[in-house]
Design brief:
Oligomer: single chain
Strand order of the largest sheet: 1-7-8-4-3-5
Order of helices and strands: EEHEEHHEEHEEH
Number of helices: 5
Mean pLDDT: 94
Radius of gyration: 17 Å
CATH superfamily: Transcriptional regulator MraZ domain
Number of strands: 8
Shape: globular
Strand content: 15-25%
CATH class: Alpha Beta
Largest sheet: 6 strands, antiparallel
Length: 155
């Protein structure tokens, strides 16, 4: 899983080091790259494995092929996705287009989201995090443990 939050800076050549634990997780899945696309929920960059993007693509493909919604999702996610290879030092080069979307100039936060991670401009993420914590607190009753028949602790 992608966990925790890490801050890294762009180097002089426009590369950034992806946190070692994130690279390790991707490597364990068999990848030496990460898929990135602009978030349509936030001013951030969404990042995931090829497997995860294939699941998203399957979900999009399950929509009616002649429905506008299918084209909206395909255009917003698949057409905007880029596979970024890690160099020998674990760095990637994020496109100017993605950096502009997230308003990242130099420093960025890699924010673990479980099966995915996001890349944020640090001040923008701090504002988002405060609001997210308030909303999570208000909606905490919606987060329930999955109950299993063989699990007596599933309460």
């Amino acid at each position: 899983m992608f966990l925790s939050t890490y801050e890294n800076k762009l180097d002089k050549k426009g590369r950034v080091s992806v946190p070692a634990s994130f690279r390790s997780h991707l490597s364990n899945l068999g990848y030496n790259s990460v898929i990135c696309y602009p978030s349509f929920n936030n001013a951030s960059i969404e990042a995931c494995s090829q497997d995860r993007l294939e699941k998203i693509s399957s979900a999009i493909d399950s929509l009616n092929p002649f429905e506008e919604k299918r084209d909206f999702f395909a255009t917003s996610i698949l057409a905007e996705s880029t596979s970024l290879q890690f160099d020998s030092e674990g760095r990637i080069s994020i496109s100017i287009k993605l950096l502009k979307h997230a308003k990242i100039k130099n420093s960025m936060l890699f924010v673990g989201q479980g099966q995915t991670f996001q890349i944020w401009e640090p001040k923008a993420f701090e504002k988002f995090k405060v609001n997210a914590r308030k909303k999570a607190n208000l909606n905490r009753a919606n987060l329930k443990w999955e109950k299993h028949l063989n699990n007596k602790e599933g309460n």
